[in-house]
Specification:
The complex is a heterodimer of chains A (287) and B (272). Chain A is of the alpha/beta class. Chain A is built from twelve helices and ten strands. Chain A has a single domain, classed as P-loop containing nucleotide triphosphate hydrolases (Rossmann fold, 3-Layer(aba) Sandwich). Chain B has one domain: Orthogonal Bundle (MetI-like fold). Chain B is 76% helix and 0% strand. Classes of the chains: A alpha/beta (287), B mainly alpha (272).
Amino acid sequence: MLTIEQLTKRYSTGDLALDSVDLQVTKGQVIALIGPSGAGKSTLIRCVNRLVEPTHGRIWLNNEQITGLRSRSLRRMRCRIGMIFQEYALVERLTVMENVLSGRLGYIGFWRSFFRRFPETDIERAFDLLERVGIEDMVDKRADALSGGQRQRVGIARALIQNPEILLIDEPTASLDPKTSRQIMQLIVDLCRESGLAAIINIHDVQLAMMFVERVIGLRQGRVVYDGSPAQLNAARLTEIYGEADWTGTAREEQDEQRDLPTSAEVIVPLIELPETGVGRQRVVGS
Amino acid sequence: MTLLEVRGSPPPRQWRKQPFIVNPWVRWGLYLGALVYLVLAIGSLEFNWARIIAGMDRGAAFIAGFLKPDFTSRWQDIYEGFLESLTMTVVATVIGVLLSIPVALGAARNLAPLPVYLVCRGIIAVSRAFQEIIIAIVFVAMFGFGPLAGVATLAFSSIGFLAKLLAEDIEDIDRQQVEAIQATGASWLQILNYAIQPQVAARFIGLSLYRLDINFRESAVIGIVGAGGIGATLNTAIARYEYDSAAAVLLCIIAVVLLVEYSSGFLRRRLL
């Protein structure tokens, strides 16, 4: 569905952020992109919607080439790609509703958007999404009045109202506390599953990534050094991605070896609101 | 027994803030040089005591005029002068605000390509290089005496002031918010309207109100060089040695400036 071929990015400072990355994302697949700071994770997802201009390589979304698109057709392509940001990137002085509806800007003309005259279907969908992410009573609050978790929910609603075919998610939990992080990850994964959306999630927190995704890509110095399931991500492979460190309690194998001790994964489990328990689902939505 | 009394402990360590100029010779040399220059400069001033004493009388007449300001005999002139000044101020501020926005967008390095940036920064530099009185003299020469020259002057200098401050504000905006709106497929105008305007609007309105009261004060000054308004009335009164009427004009200016300043301050507080 998303195909990345030989993607290379060299910044004008001379830094090589991406070094011929090849990647294929199939429909509905949720991928975690892990790697140390400066490995090129942000650059990679920003190349997909061309917020960063790739130096070499090609990217396709459903057989349509993204690289090389110009102004209007690039904007039309961006409508099909939703993006969620680390620090929410909401427009602080606009209301929650305006922030959500701004996801529709690519679909309507300037004067309609200037006078905030959005089509009724868009407004209806915005209300639905706000309800789905659990902040329906915040519609007319200004974004800067919200808490971190609430802001990220607005950010998610803004990305989803675009009706995207794929989500690019840049460190969704880096500014959130551990509990909210898990709720937000759960929400993202649920929403992707509900609508068969593919997603690439940049994430620092390896454990968190392993709990929620089906496929992990490890990036180091702009190269893909791991591509596989979270279960196979052992200490040796983490060392290959991040460098030498004590991976006890992070990698799966170590956890198995220390059965008598409560592993960190077991400690964390009660904090996650699992989707299959009705109570958990409600808390994810409501808090 | 405190720790300091323990035998054999080292003496307390010393610390002083380093002087701004580290080398003592350079430091004291500069101080001395400045002092010598000051003494010589004062010595070079020529005091013409006879002229100063003669001027005392005129000063006294001026102050005496102030003690009994005459609002009535020139009231019609004062009233018309104020009306003209206020009109000039409002018209010039509106024109200045409208024209400063495109200039500011062009002068923000994060929005404009280099050639546009340089042109707009050039406009700002020219507008800010000259004091209002000098600009007023030029415009009076171009348009003749009267409020048109005044409006042109105030609008012209408002552009430089507002565009510079707005451009700097735009350069300081949070890039992430722009990126997020860009990522939705929004057009350039939509990005301006959704990502940039919300971040700078409140401060820009505040700046415009501030410029409104600067323009009113300036309108009194540029009137003296023939650009209309209350300044012209004041100039006429002084030229005719009618210090009592001049005093009335000055008192009115003080009152109106205070009024404009307080009301714009109030509005700014409400907006921000």
